[in-house]
Write a structure and sequence with these properties.
Mean pLDDT: 86
Largest sheet: 8 strands, mixed
Oligomer: single chain
Structural class: alpha/beta
Strand content: 5-15%
Number of helices: 13
Number of strands: 10
Helix content: 40-55%
Length: about 325
Amino acid sequence: MADSDELTARLSDPAWRLSNLYQIVTKGQAADEDGALVQTFTPNAAQRKLLRMLHFRNLILKARQLGFSTLVCLLWLDTALFSREPVSCGIIAQDRESAGKLFAKIMFAYDRLPGTLKAAFPLTKRTAEEIAFGHNGASIRVATSMRGGTMHRLHVSEMGKIGARFPEKAREIVTGSIPAVPESGIVIVESTAEGASGRFYEMVRRAREVSEARQPLTSRLNSREWRLHFFAWWEAPEYRIDPQGVLITDTDRAYFNELEGRLHITLDARQRAWYAATLHGADFAGERPLMWQEYPSDAEEPFRVPREGCYYTAQLSQARQEDRIAAHNLG
């Protein structure tokens, strides 16, 4: 097979394109001529799992920093580039700064395409939040809201935070933006949790009820129902550190042991060390409800809101076990 024929065959494979075609800014070690740290995007284990299980309506409850926003940015770019139809792709971000960062991911990947591909996929529009392509009329827009018009692909980033901080915007998304996507289109709503209330919580609760009561979502007949995708911290291979020097309390051990028994998993020493170091580090300072929210172990944990009295009782009990509270005779 000639090289050009082989390249044509590869470009017809979406999986190959997502693992070979797009460049991203990374925390890696290789610097390009401009001094930016870049690498070819390759989906990680969590991202590959999502791609395998993608439905028409997708709800992602997740631990932090698993890269789903990056994945969807590139997935929408790939869709717009290689679609034969004028597909419209949109991303709703929680604020303008976040929208700018997501749009920058798309433009970075497009600008780094080989010259022959860029020539084949010319831009007819390029603004601070939208691009459109001349070869097929497809477009991608990243903004804080999407009003009017049909959107064939829609990603809502950090819906939990939108619902908590901007409830009217969340209502607009649920009642206006999402219904504008046709049944044959794809919607991806992803977020970490933000308390046991709000639009995201209600969407997750409904999706769990559907999952428990019905057969798997496999056809367009139930394309309006949400498929819940949950990604726990312990599933991510990067959430491991050297256990040397990491203090793990009795409360931590009890938590890990309970988790292993209930979920039928095994947490190795490096995973336990990462969790303990993260929980007791500067970001969370031992606040377990915050850890449950940002790095959940199961789909119920991030919405667990302890009663204040019970929570502080647990904190005091842990402090006594660690000899951080001294007994005083006040008599």
